[in-house]
Amino acid sequence: MTSDTSSEQRVAEILKKVQRIQIVANRTVNDVFAGQYKSVFRGRGMEFDEVREYQPGDDIRTIDWNVTARTGGCFVKLFSEERELTVLFLVDVSASGIFGSTQQSKLDLVVEVASLLMFSALKNNDKVGLIKFCDDVVEFLPPRKGKAHVLHIIRQLVDVQPIARETNLQSALDFLNQVQKRRAVVFLISDFLGPSARQSLAITNKRHDLTAITISDPREHALPNVGFISLMDAETGEVVEVDTRHPAVRTMFEQRTAERDHGLSDELKKTGVDQLAIDTRGDYLAGLRRFFDMREKRLR
Q1: Fold of 3-40+84-299
Q2: % helix / strand / coil in the chain, to the nearest 5?
Q3: Where in the chain are the domains?
Protein backbone atom coordinates (compact mmCIF):
# COMPACT_ATOMS: atom_id res chain seq x y z
CA MET A 1 0.00 0.00 0.00
CA THR A 2 1.40 3.37 -1.00
CA SER A 3 1.63 6.30 1.41
CA ASP A 4 -0.85 8.24 -0.75
CA THR A 5 -3.40 5.43 -0.48
CA SER A 6 -2.85 5.19 3.27
CA SER A 7 -3.31 8.93 3.62
CA GLU A 8 -6.51 8.86 1.59
CA GLN A 9 -7.88 6.05 3.75
CA ARG A 10 -7.08 7.99 6.90
CA VAL A 11 -8.85 11.08 5.58
CA ALA A 12 -11.86 8.94 4.63
CA GLU A 13 -11.94 7.41 8.14
CA ILE A 14 -11.74 10.86 9.74
CA LEU A 15 -14.58 12.21 7.59
CA LYS A 16 -16.70 9.14 8.34
CA LYS A 17 -16.17 9.57 12.08
CA VAL A 18 -16.93 13.30 11.89
CA GLN A 19 -20.16 12.53 10.03
CA ARG A 20 -21.19 10.00 12.70
CA ILE A 21 -20.39 12.47 15.48
CA GLN A 22 -22.36 15.18 13.69
CA ILE A 23 -25.45 12.98 13.38
CA VAL A 24 -25.35 11.86 17.02
CA ALA A 25 -24.58 15.33 18.38
CA ASN A 26 -27.33 17.00 16.33
CA ARG A 27 -29.90 14.45 17.46
CA THR A 28 -28.84 14.75 21.11
CA VAL A 29 -28.92 18.55 21.05
CA ASN A 30 -32.42 18.54 19.58
CA ASP A 31 -33.86 15.75 21.72
CA VAL A 32 -32.11 16.14 25.07
CA PHE A 33 -30.60 19.58 25.55
CA ALA A 34 -33.05 21.79 23.69
CA GLY A 35 -33.23 25.03 25.64
CA GLN A 36 -30.95 23.95 28.50
CA TYR A 37 -27.73 25.21 26.96
CA LYS A 38 -29.35 28.57 26.27
CA SER A 39 -30.77 28.97 29.76
CA VAL A 40 -27.52 27.92 31.44
CA PHE A 41 -24.97 29.88 29.41
CA ARG A 42 -26.68 32.54 27.34
CA GLY A 43 -27.65 35.79 28.97
CA ARG A 44 -24.81 35.47 31.49
CA GLY A 45 -23.28 38.69 30.21
CA MET A 46 -24.64 42.12 29.40
CA GLU A 47 -23.83 44.44 26.54
CA PHE A 48 -24.59 48.12 25.87
CA ASP A 49 -27.87 48.70 24.05
CA GLU A 50 -28.84 52.42 24.09
CA VAL A 51 -29.14 55.52 26.23
CA ARG A 52 -32.23 57.32 27.56
CA GLU A 53 -32.91 60.25 29.84
CA TYR A 54 -32.41 59.71 33.54
CA GLN A 55 -35.55 58.85 35.53
CA PRO A 56 -35.98 58.93 39.32
CA GLY A 57 -34.86 55.59 40.75
CA ASP A 58 -32.25 54.86 38.05
CA ASP A 59 -28.88 53.62 39.30
CA ILE A 60 -26.51 56.61 39.16
CA ARG A 61 -23.71 54.20 38.23
CA THR A 62 -25.35 53.79 34.81
CA ILE A 63 -25.14 57.51 33.96
CA ASP A 64 -23.38 58.06 30.63
CA TRP A 65 -21.27 61.08 31.50
CA ASN A 66 -20.08 61.66 27.95
CA VAL A 67 -23.63 61.96 26.55
CA THR A 68 -24.73 63.94 29.61
CA ALA A 69 -21.93 66.47 29.14
CA ARG A 70 -22.55 66.73 25.39
CA THR A 71 -26.33 67.26 25.57
CA GLY A 72 -26.71 69.12 28.84
CA GLY A 73 -29.32 66.60 30.00
CA CYS A 74 -28.80 63.55 32.19
CA PHE A 75 -28.71 60.22 30.34
CA VAL A 76 -28.21 56.63 31.52
CA LYS A 77 -26.93 53.57 29.68
CA LEU A 78 -29.29 50.68 29.03
CA PHE A 79 -27.95 47.15 28.72
CA SER A 80 -29.36 43.99 27.20
CA GLU A 81 -28.41 40.34 27.42
CA GLU A 82 -25.62 39.41 25.05
CA ARG A 83 -27.11 38.26 21.78
CA GLU A 84 -24.24 35.89 21.13
CA LEU A 85 -21.57 34.19 23.14
CA THR A 86 -18.00 33.24 22.48
CA VAL A 87 -17.45 29.60 23.46
CA LEU A 88 -13.88 28.35 23.71
CA PHE A 89 -12.73 24.76 24.15
CA LEU A 90 -9.35 24.13 25.77
CA VAL A 91 -8.57 20.50 24.98
CA ASP A 92 -5.72 18.52 26.50
CA VAL A 93 -4.10 16.40 23.75
CA SER A 94 -1.41 14.76 25.88
CA ALA A 95 -0.70 11.06 25.38
CA SER A 96 -2.54 10.03 28.56
CA GLY A 97 -5.72 10.59 26.56
CA ILE A 98 -5.17 7.47 24.46
CA PHE A 99 -5.78 5.27 27.51
CA GLY A 100 -9.08 3.43 27.72
CA SER A 101 -10.16 0.17 29.31
CA THR A 102 -13.67 0.26 27.86
CA GLN A 103 -14.93 0.61 24.30
CA GLN A 104 -13.47 4.08 23.95
CA SER A 105 -10.41 6.00 25.04
CA LYS A 106 -10.46 9.16 27.10
CA LEU A 107 -9.66 11.14 23.96
CA ASP A 108 -12.63 9.56 22.13
CA LEU A 109 -14.85 10.71 24.99
CA VAL A 110 -13.34 14.21 24.83
CA VAL A 111 -14.23 14.49 21.14
CA GLU A 112 -17.82 13.34 21.70
CA VAL A 113 -18.51 15.64 24.64
CA ALA A 114 -16.84 18.63 22.97
CA SER A 115 -18.77 18.02 19.74
CA LEU A 116 -22.08 17.90 21.60
CA LEU A 117 -21.38 21.22 23.30
CA MET A 118 -20.16 22.74 20.03
CA PHE A 119 -23.39 21.84 18.25
CA SER A 120 -25.33 23.32 21.17
CA ALA A 121 -23.39 26.54 20.64
CA LEU A 122 -23.95 26.34 16.88
CA LYS A 123 -27.71 25.96 17.38
CA ASN A 124 -27.67 29.20 19.39
CA ASN A 125 -25.57 31.04 16.79
CA ASP A 126 -22.58 31.41 19.12
CA LYS A 127 -18.95 31.72 18.12
CA VAL A 128 -16.84 28.61 18.73
CA GLY A 129 -13.05 28.39 19.09
CA LEU A 130 -10.46 25.78 20.02
CA ILE A 131 -7.16 25.73 21.88
CA LYS A 132 -5.30 22.41 21.77
CA PHE A 133 -2.55 22.09 24.34
CA CYS A 134 -0.13 19.75 26.05
CA ASP A 135 3.03 21.13 27.67
CA ASP A 136 2.31 24.27 25.64
CA VAL A 137 -0.36 25.47 23.22
CA VAL A 138 -0.32 23.30 20.10
CA GLU A 139 -2.95 25.04 17.98
CA PHE A 140 -5.38 27.94 18.26
CA LEU A 141 -8.47 28.21 16.09
CA PRO A 142 -10.03 31.64 16.81
CA PRO A 143 -13.76 31.76 17.59
CA ARG A 144 -16.05 32.00 14.58
CA LYS A 145 -19.64 31.29 13.72
CA GLY A 146 -21.02 28.69 11.38
CA LYS A 147 -21.41 24.98 10.82
CA ALA A 148 -18.39 24.73 8.51
CA HIS A 149 -16.15 26.15 11.25
CA VAL A 150 -17.52 23.75 13.88
CA LEU A 151 -17.01 20.77 11.59
CA HIS A 152 -13.46 21.94 10.90
CA ILE A 153 -12.75 22.03 14.65
CA ILE A 154 -14.20 18.55 15.12
CA ARG A 155 -12.05 17.23 12.28
CA GLN A 156 -9.00 18.71 14.01
CA LEU A 157 -9.92 16.89 17.21
CA VAL A 158 -10.62 13.58 15.49
CA ASP A 159 -7.23 13.80 13.76
CA VAL A 160 -5.30 14.62 16.95
CA GLN A 161 -1.89 13.02 17.33
CA PRO A 162 -1.43 12.71 21.13
CA ILE A 163 1.77 14.24 22.49
CA ALA A 164 3.97 12.36 24.97
CA ARG A 165 4.77 15.31 27.20
CA GLU A 166 3.48 16.45 30.58
CA THR A 167 0.31 18.53 30.57
CA ASN A 168 0.71 22.22 31.45
CA LEU A 169 -2.69 23.68 32.32
CA GLN A 170 -1.22 27.01 33.35
CA SER A 171 0.31 27.61 29.93
CA ALA A 172 -3.03 26.99 28.19
CA LEU A 173 -5.01 29.20 30.58
CA ASP A 174 -2.48 32.03 30.37
CA PHE A 175 -2.62 31.87 26.57
CA LEU A 176 -6.42 31.98 26.67
CA ASN A 177 -6.39 35.12 28.81
CA GLN A 178 -3.96 36.78 26.40
CA VAL A 179 -5.95 36.12 23.22
CA GLN A 180 -9.51 36.37 24.57
CA LYS A 181 -10.06 39.76 26.17
CA ARG A 182 -13.87 39.72 26.21
CA ARG A 183 -15.73 37.42 28.57
CA ALA A 184 -16.35 33.95 27.12
CA VAL A 185 -17.78 30.58 28.07
CA VAL A 186 -14.77 28.28 28.43
CA PHE A 187 -14.69 24.49 28.65
CA LEU A 188 -11.36 23.13 29.90
CA ILE A 189 -11.31 19.42 28.99
CA SER A 190 -8.53 17.30 30.46
CA ASP A 191 -7.74 14.34 32.70
CA PHE A 192 -5.93 16.85 34.94
CA LEU A 193 -2.99 14.52 35.58
CA GLY A 194 -0.45 17.33 35.32
CA PRO A 195 0.74 19.86 37.91
CA SER A 196 -1.73 22.14 39.69
CA ALA A 197 -2.67 25.45 38.05
CA ARG A 198 -4.68 26.90 40.91
CA GLN A 199 -3.77 30.55 40.40
CA SER A 200 -4.41 30.47 36.65
CA LEU A 201 -7.74 28.70 37.23
CA ALA A 202 -8.82 31.42 39.67
CA ILE A 203 -7.76 34.24 37.33
CA THR A 204 -9.45 32.66 34.32
CA ASN A 205 -12.68 32.05 36.20
CA LYS A 206 -12.88 35.72 37.15
CA ARG A 207 -12.51 36.77 33.51
CA HIS A 208 -14.62 34.03 31.94
CA ASP A 209 -17.32 31.49 32.70
CA LEU A 210 -15.01 28.51 33.18
CA THR A 211 -16.09 24.87 33.44
CA ALA A 212 -13.60 22.05 34.02
CA ILE A 213 -14.62 18.79 32.34
CA THR A 214 -12.55 16.13 34.07
CA ILE A 215 -12.08 12.94 32.04
CA SER A 216 -11.13 9.60 33.59
CA ASP A 217 -11.21 5.84 33.04
CA PRO A 218 -12.31 3.15 35.54
CA ARG A 219 -8.85 1.56 35.57
CA GLU A 220 -7.42 4.83 36.84
CA HIS A 221 -9.49 4.43 40.00
CA ALA A 222 -9.16 0.72 40.78
CA LEU A 223 -6.81 -2.12 39.81
CA PRO A 224 -8.12 -5.60 38.91
CA ASN A 225 -6.63 -8.72 40.53
CA VAL A 226 -4.68 -9.97 37.49
CA GLY A 227 -1.20 -10.62 38.88
CA PHE A 228 1.85 -8.68 37.71
CA ILE A 229 1.16 -5.78 35.37
CA SER A 230 3.27 -3.00 33.91
CA LEU A 231 1.94 0.53 34.32
CA MET A 232 3.42 3.14 31.99
CA ASP A 233 3.04 6.88 32.25
CA ALA A 234 2.13 7.81 28.67
CA GLU A 235 3.51 11.32 29.08
CA THR A 236 6.86 10.56 30.76
CA GLY A 237 7.46 6.98 29.60
CA GLU A 238 8.09 5.83 33.17
CA VAL A 239 7.19 2.14 33.73
CA VAL A 240 6.28 0.61 37.09
CA GLU A 241 5.77 -3.11 37.80
CA VAL A 242 2.84 -3.81 40.12
CA ASP A 243 1.66 -7.07 41.69
CA THR A 244 -2.11 -6.70 41.79
CA ARG A 245 -2.64 -9.99 43.65
CA HIS A 246 -2.06 -8.25 46.99
CA PRO A 247 -5.17 -6.53 48.44
CA ALA A 248 -2.94 -3.96 50.14
CA VAL A 249 -1.52 -2.89 46.77
CA ARG A 250 -4.96 -2.49 45.25
CA THR A 251 -6.22 -0.62 48.32
CA MET A 252 -3.24 1.75 48.28
CA PHE A 253 -3.79 2.47 44.60
CA GLU A 254 -7.47 3.27 45.20
CA GLN A 255 -6.66 5.49 48.18
CA ARG A 256 -4.07 7.50 46.29
CA THR A 257 -6.41 7.93 43.34
CA ALA A 258 -9.25 9.00 45.62
CA GLU A 259 -6.94 11.52 47.32
CA ARG A 260 -5.90 12.94 43.94
CA ASP A 261 -9.53 13.21 42.78
CA HIS A 262 -10.58 14.83 46.05
CA GLY A 263 -7.67 17.26 45.83
CA LEU A 264 -8.64 18.27 42.28
CA SER A 265 -12.32 18.75 43.17
CA ASP A 266 -11.33 20.79 46.22
CA GLU A 267 -9.01 22.98 44.12
CA LEU A 268 -11.72 23.64 41.54
CA LYS A 269 -14.26 24.42 44.25
CA LYS A 270 -11.94 26.88 45.99
CA THR A 271 -11.24 28.68 42.71
CA GLY A 272 -14.97 28.85 41.91
CA VAL A 273 -14.68 26.65 38.81
CA ASP A 274 -17.62 24.36 38.00
CA GLN A 275 -16.65 20.72 37.53
CA LEU A 276 -18.25 18.16 35.24
CA ALA A 277 -16.71 14.75 35.95
CA ILE A 278 -17.26 12.01 33.37
CA ASP A 279 -15.55 8.71 32.58
CA THR A 280 -15.30 6.30 29.69
CA ARG A 281 -17.64 3.68 31.17
CA GLY A 282 -20.62 5.82 32.02
CA ASP A 283 -23.44 7.63 30.29
CA TYR A 284 -21.96 11.10 29.91
CA LEU A 285 -25.37 12.43 28.86
CA ALA A 286 -26.63 11.79 32.38
CA GLY A 287 -23.66 13.72 33.74
CA LEU A 288 -24.38 16.62 31.39
CA ARG A 289 -28.04 16.68 32.44
CA ARG A 290 -27.06 16.85 36.12
CA PHE A 291 -24.57 19.59 35.34
CA PHE A 292 -27.13 21.68 33.45
CA ASP A 293 -29.71 21.12 36.20
CA MET A 294 -27.22 22.25 38.84
CA ARG A 295 -26.43 25.45 36.96
CA GLU A 296 -30.11 26.20 36.33
CA LYS A 297 -30.92 25.82 40.04
CA ARG A 298 -28.04 28.09 40.97
CA LEU A 299 -29.18 30.76 38.50
CA ARG A 300 -32.68 30.65 39.93
Answers
A1: Rossmann fold (3.40.50)
A2: 50, 25, 30
A3: 3-40+84-299, 46-81
